[in-house]
Design brief:
Elements (H helix, E strand, L loop, with lengths): L23 E6 L3 H17 L7 E6 L5 H11 L4 E9 L5 H19 L4 E8 L2 H6 L1 E3 L2 E2 H20 L1
Parallel strand pairs: 1-2, 1-3, 3-4
Antiparallel strand pairs: 5-6
Helix pairs in contact: 1-5, 2-3
C-alpha cells in the first residue's frame, strides 16, 4: 500500500506482542541524520512502548545507507540480537547514484533475510525530495521508525511461533 494512503505510525497496538525478552539491533545511517535520527527515535520509542528494555536495544551507526548491509551482517554475527532494523535515507539527486545506492542496499538486505536466521527490517526511506523524507520521519505521514519497530517485534514472534 502506498504511504500516501497509510500513516506509518498507525497500527493495532494490541496486535503487537510484548517485547520484554527480545533483543534488537538498530543500524542507522549518519547520512541525512536529520531524517535517520528521527526514524531512530521513533523506532526506539515504539520498542520501549512494547516492553523492550534499554539494555536490549543495541544502536550502531554507519556512514551511509549503502553500509547498512555490512552493519546489519555484523549485528547478526555478533549473536546479540533477535532482529535488526536497518535505518537509512536516500534522497534522489541529479545523478544515478540514488539508483545504485537504493538497489544495492535493498538487494543486500534482501540477501541477509534470505540467508540468515535473523530478520533484518527494511527501514530505508527512498524519496524524490527532502520534504517527502520529512513527511515519513515523524511528519504528516507518521514515522517509518515506528513501523520498523513493530515489524521487528512481529518477526521475532513469528520465528518463535514456528519453533513451538
Amino acid at each position: 500500500m502506498a504511504t500516501a494512503y497509510h500513516n506509518l505510525s498507525d497500527y493495532d497496538f494490541n496486535s503487537v506482542p510484548n517485547a520484554a525478552d527480545m533483543r534488537f539491533g538498530i543500524v542507522v545511517s549518519e547520512w541525512n541524520y536529520n531524517i535517520t535520527g528521527a526514524l531512530l527515535a521513533g523506532a526506539v520509542k515504539t520498542l520501549q512502548t512494547h516492553g523492550a528494555k534499554d539494555e536490549n536495544i543495541l544502536v550502531q551507526h554507519v556512514p551511509g545507507s549503502f553500509e547498512l548491509t555490512f552493519g546489519s551482517a555484523q549485528m547478526i554475527q555478533s549473536g546479540k540480537v533477535d532482529a535488526v532494523i536497518a535505518i537509512g535515507c536516500v534522497v534522489r539527486g541529479d545523478t544515478p547514484h540514488f539508483d545504485y545506492v537504493c538497489a544495492g542496499t535493498t538487494q543486500g538486505i534482501a540477501h541477509l533475510n534470505a540467508t540468515t536466521d535473523i530478520p533484518v527490517i527494511y527501514g530505508l526511506i527512498t524519496t524524490n525530495n527532502m520534504q517527502q523524507a520529512e513527511d515519513r520521519a515523524g511528519g504528516c505521514l507518521g514515522n517509518k521508525g515506528d513501523e520498523c519497530a513493530v515489524t521487528a517485534i512481529k518477526m521475532i514472534d513469528f520465528k518463535r511461533q514456528l519453533k513451538k
